[in-house]
Amino acid sequence: MSTPPAELTLDEVRDRIRAARVEIPEARLALIHGLLRDALRPIRAFDTREALTLEPAPTFDAAAERDRHGH
Amino acid sequence: MATELWDLGIAELGRRYRARELSPVDVAAAHLSRIESVDKRLSSYVTVTSDRAISDARAAEEALRRGEAGPLTGIPIAYKDLYATRGIRTTGGSALLAEWVPDRDSTCVSRLQRAGMVMLGKLTTHEFAFGIQFPGHRFPPARNPWNLDHIPGGSSSGSGAALAAGLTVGALGSDTGGSIRGPAAFCGIAGLKPTYGRVSRAGVLTLSWTLDHTGPMARTVEDCALMLQALAGHDPEDPASSREPVGDYTAGLGQGVRGLRVGVPREYFFSDVTPEVAGAFESAMATLRSLGAEVRDVAIPSIWSAPAFMVIMLSEAYAYHARHLRARQELYGEVLREKLLAGALLTADEYVQAQRLRARLREDVHRVLGEVDLLATPTAAVTAPPFAAVLDPDFPFARSNMAPFNMTGLPALALPCGFAPNGLPVSLQLAGRPFGEATVLRAGHAYEQATEWHRRRPQL
């Protein structure tokens, strides 16, 4: 991507906490923010058109199933 | 020290049992006595099953007398307290399950007991294999035998600590993002995360089902191989269990590494590595070269996506715990509760994209493993941190060198490759192709035979 993606902000974390209706004390927000910011960095940098779709739907190709599941 | 009964490994004990030089009952008693005297300081055991140990050891002695002994007969073993054990409390390190007594064994426990192993007890785990125990938790955290002020790694914390301290000969761990290899690295022992589907997870508490693995931990690679032989194989009770035929993990152990191609992925895996870890790793590569391996750098283009691992783990862990988190949240340790709730803050599209990134990473690593036989990295970027640092809620999570192999499901082995100036162990990680455990173990064993790191013991 040409411009660096926006990182998850602390305010976004607060918004998500409200939307999910969970309680996380303010004192822990820095920890949760750091955890989610790092985890989401590659996802926010990911151009969804660059990768194949991943469809865990039933398929009926035995060879493909063997490959997918390793047996 | 080398003559102490608690210091012998699986292979050596087996040889001495068959030569009638040692009795499983004496060996079990020596371990129980050492646990009694040492574990007050380590807290590596949650439950010690003394009567069961002696009864198992007597049965093993009978089997030896009848000439029906296998390689694991009479060998002391302890199980991470995440594995269900019939009639024996299984806590998962959680107040929620503090009094749970399962009515059946997990498949792994069942297989090792059937192989004649002697159960010493249940080992401390981080709460539900995720949250380190903060002061005041129902179960105290295990401590690192090399320095009691430092963590032993987790979540198989008791497994790593007990092995390093000579409080068991073998142990089981589970590994969602490095929970076998991390404690192995920080405690200076060996631990194998097998290929996803190679060893059953039936009867083991779930953290994140597309990332969870089970596997052996021991003081040597050979001992891990001996345990894997009994553990591996299809289990209809684990939906991810593979039908891939089980190889012979010990027959080729002595074949060395001559001609093996070892790839070192420099990007990502070295960005946070401390100089002492980097130095030990480069020395290990020099040793592998001197043994005849071809070591060269390789590139995994999508390795930058590895931290998306945490999106998958948090989402799945929240899905598993959501109901209890709402109904019984007071029974969760506060830090674990909040980390699990972080899973509720992720969106469906983020989980899906993380799985797509995972698929691409898997393809890239698969391609690289077409050019080399093994990948080598430092297991952990640092040595074991002190409790004082980790218990700070703002402690930064280090980039994991282990999680990429949970994302890709590939077999990965941790084994000691040195000691830092602070006296704490440094570890080497070797990863291989799907179901390539025999090659990974063979390379690890060759390295171990050429070095002395695995023979060092902490002073307790």
Structure summary:
The complex is a heterodimer of chains A (71) and B (460). Chain A has 71 residues and is mainly α.
> What is the CATH architecture annotation of chain B?
Alpha-Beta Complex
Q: Strand content of the residues of chain B, in percent?
A: 5-15%
* Main beta-sheet annotation of chain B: 11 strands, mixed
Could you say which structural class the secondary elements and strand pairing of chain A correspond to? mainly alpha
Largest interface: A-B, 32 and 41 residues
Q: How many E-type strands of chain B? A: 11
Helix content of chain A: 40-55%
Radius of gyration of chain B: 20 Å
- Helix-strand sequence of chain B: HHEHEHEHEHEEHEHEHHHEHHEEH
Derived structural class of chain B: alpha/beta
For the record, the count of structural domains of chain A works out to 1
Count of runs of 4 or more consecutive helical residues of chain A: 3
Give the averaged pLDDT of chain B, no decimals: 96
Strand content of chain A is: under 5%
Average of pLDDT of chain A: 80
Radius of gyration of chain A: 18 Å
